[in-house]
Write a structure and sequence with these properties.
Blueprint: H1 11-37, H2 42-74, E1 95-98, H3 100-104, E2 109-114, E3 117-122
Parallel strand pairs: 1-3
Antiparallel strand pairs: 2-3
């Protein structure tokens, strides 16, 4: 059984995410430019502090409103969502081949990918050949 990919976000939301990421990088670069240029001016620090004092409560309150909206739509959480215990395919759709009982006690597990199959194999560390160095020490 393979999982289906999630539907992509609407273009407006992707554009908003890209804008926020770009804005974050611009602020990061600007901040480091100010640090490396010498002492930041008091006016810039004021703008930064005021901006943070405005932005942090807005983001926090937006997150709270978002969660309250989820609570109103779905009601209170009564239990943890049930997770599917079967692991037949990975997120790329490869079939999983594994003896989970044997792997539970293994000290080393190799993961072998072969086309559309992924195998988990317990490896006995003692059975592995030890590579001897051919270099001579002087």
């Amino acid at each position: 059984m393979s999982r289906q990919a999630q539907a992509p976000l609407p273009w407006r939301r992707r554009l908003l995410h890209a804008f926020l990421i770009a804005l974050g990088w611009v602020l990061f670069v600007w901040g480091w430019q100010r640090v490396t240029a010498g002492r930041p001016e008091l006016g810039e620090l004021r703008v930064l502090v005021i901006g943070v004092l405005i932005a942090v409560p807005i983001v926090t309150l937006s997150w709270v409103v978002h969660n309250v909206g989820i609570h109103r739509r779905k009601g209170p959480r009564r239990s943890v969502p049930v997770a599917e215990e079967r692991y037949d395919a990975d997120f790329n759709g490869r079939r999983i081949a594994a003896d989970w009982a044997q792997l539970a006690g293994a000290s080393r597990v190799d993961i072998l990918v072969d086309g559309s199959e992924k195998r988990f194999v317990a490896v006995d560390a003692k059975a592995q050949p030890v590579r001897e160095s051919t270099e001579e020490t002087v």
